[in-house]
Amino acid sequence: VALAIVIGEASRHAVVVFFMSDVLQAGDRIGRTFIFYYMMGVAAIPFWQWLAKKYGKHRSLAIAMSWSALMVLATAFLGAGDYGTFLLFFVLKGASFGAFAYLPLAIMADVVDVDTAVTRQKRAGIFFAVFGAVDKIGIAIGMFIALQVLSLTGYDPSREITEAGLCMIRLEYAVIPTFFFLLASYLVWNYPLTNA
Predict the structure, then answer these.
(1) pTM of the entire predicted model
(2) 28: which DSSP letter?
(3) Rounded Cα–Cα distance for residues 186 and 26 (Å)
């Protein structure tokens, strides 16, 4: 699940600057756009905590993934001059960033607790090391795939952008992450470790 989340996020992050600069033609607004995104992520953490207490961490994470998929996919058809609409979807997607930041780790802590109770061994370090490695591998895979596939279209940000390049940027920013977010949502929805 963590790998799918990270690949989706990394592939999107690999091309967000190109999406904003070349598709939306709003490259001068990148910095402030991310400020709003992360502010929304932090502001939404209490909501995700409430949702996790009410429905469980795994279901809350699945909802966050589905929300992310919807917000990212909504940007697929945006173009030049659509920065305001993009900003709305981007900031709303940022709300799920708070869930990504802590829910997978909270679920991992529950796994560690169960493992400790069952095995009577303290292996938290191993679990979190593997989690960290999966995170780094997912970032590498997501970024590598996104940038390599984009280069196959002949995309070069210093030259005139072709329609194929713009189409691939849209695909990599909106469609590919949506697939991975929905995959993660599906996988985690019926996760067997719950509050019960």
Answers:
(1) 0.88
(2) G
(3) 34
Whether residue 196 is predicted with pLDDT greater than 60 in this model: the reply is no
DSSP state of 192: S
Separation of alpha carbons 187 and 68, rounded Å: 15
Report helix, strand or coil for 44. coil
Beta strands in 21-180 (DSSP E): none
pLDDT tens digits for 24-35?
999 899 999 999
Mean predicted lDDT score pLDDT of the chain: 91
Rounded to 5°, angle at Cα 117 from 114 and 122: 90
* Residue type present at position 41: G
Q: Which of 109-118, 149-158, 181-190 has the lowest mean pLDDT?
A: 149-158
- CA 111, CA 109: separation in Å to the nearest integer? 5
Crossing angle of the two packed helices 2-18 and 176-189, in degrees rounded to 10: 160
Radius of gyration of the chain from Cα atoms? Answer: 18
Contact 189/63 with Cβ under 8 angstroms? no
Cα–Cα distance between 194 and 17 in angstroms, integer? 38
Q: Which amino acid is at 103?
A: L
Judged by DSSP in three states, 195 sits in coil
Let me know: does 15 contact 145? Beta carbons within 8 Å: no
Task: Report whether 21 contacts 152 (CB < 8 A).
Answer: no
Instruction: Name the residue type at position 98.
Output: G
Contact predicate 153/170, CB 8 Å:
no
